[in-house]
Specification:
Length: 288
């Protein structure tokens, strides 16, 4: 099983995450809290209350964990294509796989990474939603002191299953949308690249950026539900399950609720995925 795709996926995932984290914090807050009027209001309040550091809350943890999960996505994707089409990454430019194969391999990667992502994503969302300013004398301490404390508290209160809160919603969110992600990337690359050649850096940036946007647009409704299920039981009401969360969110806030965070998700998705794909392709090319 070729391993370099896993390593390249890991490094490229980490680069994308750093670039995207401030957007991600604003998104999670908009999706789960009602105190903000919009993106700008959320940014201003976060800055005033918590300084620039507020945007980078909980970042070291995703860098260490979620970038590893990205390696699973790209590693499984490439190895699934190898199994389906018997071509390695290097051979695929000369013998491009069909879009059906790309879709199936993307869904497989998405499905497997979602399960590994679930506990890390849960901790990220819980930490991002702590809006208390850092270490102000006299103010009550935040519920979680950091990622390890957060994981331990959830484990203590709810057992190992607690760490997989929202995992179903996450799997449903990621399986089809990561199929869409790789199909969009491949399709755009092929539009701008002569047959048999490697896409230029510009093409990879644009194709990666749009692959990110399109897959995030498709993923946003379930992203909202996922974040709410992850926060359930804390500040938020508890839900009877995925369906209950969908129905009661729609009843209380209208259908627009499913598009919360769409603009910010898309604004984040372009740079993050442009850099992710560019560094991924570059690393694989330089390793030959
Ligand atoms: C499929 N869905 C759109 C949900 C996720 C796509 C993940 C791609 C990248 N790691 C990122 O954070 O943007």
């Amino acid at each position: 099983m070729p391993a370099e795709e896993f390593v390249a996926g890991w490094i490229s995932g980490a680069l994308g995450l750093v670039l995207g984290h401030p957007f991600d914090t604003v998104k999670v807050r908009l999706q789960t809290q009602t105190t903000y009027r919009g993106i700008v209001d959320c940014m201003v309040k976060t800055y005033r209350h918590e300084s620039l550091l507020g945007f980078f809350k909980g970042m070291s943890f995703p860098i260490a964990s979620i970038s590893v999960v990205n390696s699973i996505l790209f590693g499984v994707y490439s190895n699934a294509l190898l199994a389906l089409t018997a071509t390695s990454h290097q051979e695929r430019r000369a013998q491009p796989p069909s879009y059906t194969h790309v879709f199936i391999a993307g869904c497989t990667g998405g499905f497997l990474q979602a399960y590994c992502l679930a506990p890390f994503d849960l901790i990220k969302v819980r930490l991002q939603n702590q809006t208390e300013p850092r270490a102000k004398p006299g103010s009550p301490p935040p519920r979680y002191r950091g990622p390890v404390h957060c994981a331990a508290s959830i484990f203590q209160a709810e057992g190992p299953r607690g760490l997989f809160r929202g995992a179903w919603a996450l799997t449903l969110r990621d399986t089809p949308t990561l199929g869409i992600y790789f199909v969009t990337y491949e399709w755009l690359c092929r539009q701008f690249t002569p047959d048999g050649q490697n896409p230029s850096s510009g093409t990879v940036l644009v194709a990666g950026g749009f692959a990110g946007i399109i897959s995030w647009v498709a993923a946003t409704p379930l992203d909202v539900i996922k974040s709410r299920m992850q926060m359930a039981g804390l500040k938020q009401r508890a839900y009877g399950g995925l369906l209950d969360c969908i129905v009661s969110s729609a009843r209380q806030e209208g259908l627009g609720v499913f598009f919360r965070g769409l603009t910010i998700n898309s604004a984040r998705a372009f740079p993050v995925n442009a850099i992710t794909f560019l560094s991924y392709e570059y690393l694989l090319l330089s390793w030959g």
